[in-house]
Prior knowledge:
Phosphoribosylformylglycinamidine cyclo-ligase; 15 strands; PurM_cligase; ligase; PurM-like_C_dom; alpha+beta; globular; four-stranded mixed β-sheet
Amino acid sequence: MTTRPNDPEPVTYAGAGVDTEAGDRAVELMKAWVAKTRRPEVVGGIGGFAGLFDVSALKTYKRPLLATSTDGVGTKVQIAQRLDIHDTIGFDLVGMVVDDIVVAGAEPLFMTDYIACGSVVPERIAAVVRGIAEACVVAGCALAGGETAEHPGLLDPDEYDVAGAVTGVVEADDVLGPERVRDGDVLVAMASSGLHSNGYSLVRRVLEVSGWGLERHVDELGRTVGEELLEPTRVYAQDVLDLVRGGRAGGRDDGVDVHAVSHVTGGGLAANLARVLPRGLEAVVDRASWTPAPVFGLVRRLGQVPVDDLERTLNLGVGMVAVVAPQSVDAALARLQARGLPAWVLGTVGAPGARSDGDVTQGAKGVDGGAVRMVGSQPL
Length: 380
């Protein structure tokens, strides 16, 4: 084919902004990290069109139910991009999805991820996947597949977003939820590692109006603002499963009777706890039972954020809540603390009307269930 002097330059995929060779390099860099997540049930390796997982083990279940969840990490990715630190975001992604399915008592089996970016920088993509892989190891699930998509023109070269999905399994008779919760049950809180991955639109706006930069060192936090905001989401999967199983997998039964579990994400503590309570019961949460980490008070003061808005947006130091039978409280606390997870009694479940003070949340997130009454106050 001949080209005349006035003909336009040939259009290529690379010229349009997509570097397939960079994508191949990113895959090579992430291979070792993906391999660390491998479970015996994984069939094949990285690079296939589909991830394969052998479910022969499910034959031992009487009625296995598959559980699935999908999510991202929201605008927290902007903090990672501004600081050019990308390995923690993957950890956040895993926490957002695996801890949603363990709420039902499901064991996470495998996960897939999706990364959309303006330009593939192999080292950056590999760092994100490294975080995903490290968190999958903590959660006990395999990273069975994923996709990296380059979207020039839609995203700036240094922009990206991440999403993921997890699949798990639970025996039908062992599903946790509102139907198991009883009058007299006790709420056991599990500490968050910080902000986790919700409410960052509020937090970023607070920083904007206050003029505080991410590099600013804050004595109260013991590190910079950016380091605090990138603290990875705590992954509770194995902690919750160990609690639910009551130690029976290790040949002993220490009597932990868990009825329901709530993952405290967007919407805050009350809204997410209300989702796992049956209609006709009310959980009373004592705000004075814990002191939120300094970052929460800092956000409130810098932005003059109303406390009720803060409470509806951030986890305020509680990442998960287990609803347990009263006779199981000591065993539950002991098991969690033995795993290095701070835990405490948050409140109780009972019939509505026992208390008239506080703030009540009911019917949260489309669930017509029980109510949560937040009483007392906290030093924020």
